[in-house]
Amino acid sequence: MYFPSYRMRRLRTTEQVRDLVSETHLSTDRLIHPLFVTHGKDVRTEIESMPGCYQLSISNLVAEAMEVFSLGIPAVLLFGIPAVKDEAGSGAYDDEGIIQMAVAALKESLPELLVITDVCLCEYTSHGHCGIIKDGYVDNDITLEILARMAVSHAEAGADIVAPSDMMDGRVAAIRNGLDGEGFINTPIMSYAAKFASAFYGPFREAAESTPEFGDRRSYQMDHRNSNEAVREVLLDLEEGADIIMVKPALPYLDIIYRIKQETRFPLAAFNVSGEYSMLKAAAAQGWLDEKRVVLESLMAIRRAGADMIITYHAREAAQWLKE
Ligand code: PBG
Ligand code: ZN
Question: Could you give all domains of the chain from N- to C-terminal order, each with its CATH number?
């Protein structure tokens, strides 16, 4: 029997040696917790397909955010469910809209918590699309003005970072102009740059009540067969002024995360989306998977692929596990 004098197993003999040579680190300070906020008093409605996630009214949102922050999670990503929806998504830039009020409440109670807001119209439009509909098609350029207005109103309410997820062309530039025009030159844009049209968003649409009433999102979100196109999307967003770029979903798209990190070296976020969460939750509930281990392994895989930060519904539990 012949093999080289080198034995790979030498560095695997003890935990201490394994730790010493480990290449990737997962820590709570790289996690971002998504939260859903809704109108009403004392609302805490569990999302059926996302056990452990809730639609929260503002006071419960603040309480939840306090817990998240006390676990060492530095940031939340907010999604709003407005009281009324219309064709134009006007609730999106209402100064007294759900997100604007939620951001103000969070910043008042937890000034050090980073509040990131999702900038997109699908939760606010009656038809559930991410932009304004003209002749049955999501009109790009009309939508841009509304997105810029929405981002400015979030910044005015106190948002630390705005995160456009609509996938309109030119929205990063439009939002950057809008923010700069109102003096928010230091508000970063975290752009959902390579966002794929994915069936893994299914549970989110229940959570955010944002399922499109007709058609799907394939005329604006990316085709999941494409990787070169993801690079183009990212480069365009960077050119338009994106500060942090995002790949979404995460686990079925680790090749994209890896590639974007290699090709750009820019700050990169990965969104471990609702369907990825639901799969592990469902299997764990059946006793088919060890939840703690599969969650930490998945998050580590996303970091190993190249993500600097991870948006994940597992953030709270992961933070607890990482403390143990
Ligand atoms: C809205 C938005 C979606 C997600 C984040 N922002 C859904 C969609 O595009 O249909 C998905 C998040 C998740 O599945 O966890 N534009
Ligand atoms: Zn949307």
Answer: 25-323 (3.20.20.70)
